What does this fold into?
Amino acid sequence: MLKKATNKQLQTIFHYEKEFCTPNFYKKITKELLNRGVLDLSMFQKATNEQLWVILKNDTYVHTAHLLGIVRELILRSHIQQLVKEQFKTMNYAERTTNFADEEINLLCQQLAINAVFEYRQGYGTFLDYYKFLVSNLLKSLSYLPDNEKNIVS
It folds into this structure.
């Protein structure tokens, strides 16, 4: 379906009609634009880490393309892992979650960050607050898995 759409049609949906799309459909549109090379996320490579964090901490109206670029850049710079570690330290049931390898938890949280970009609604707080909430729920759900299921994480 998306293969037949023109770049202009996909860009119109991407920039102006997010609230009318489901997060999965919006993710497919973004993936198609990235595959076609129309969506450029390289502008955030020049930003400092502090600039990226200021945007995530303070802005409540960040366009999805910019948010995706910021999250992608933070994942490439391994700064999402620091946020996960900070969130992990604040939890009182963290000792039960340590059966997972750090790489597994970081990978899950990176996937969660990308999915959160598409599910985030502008104007309802900052993206960082939303993401911290999702990470704490993920870590909490991982801590309640039975021991025999802790080796199977997908």
Notes: Residues 40-149 form one domain. The chain has one domain: 40-149. The chain has a mean pLDDT of 78. The chain has eight helices and no strands.
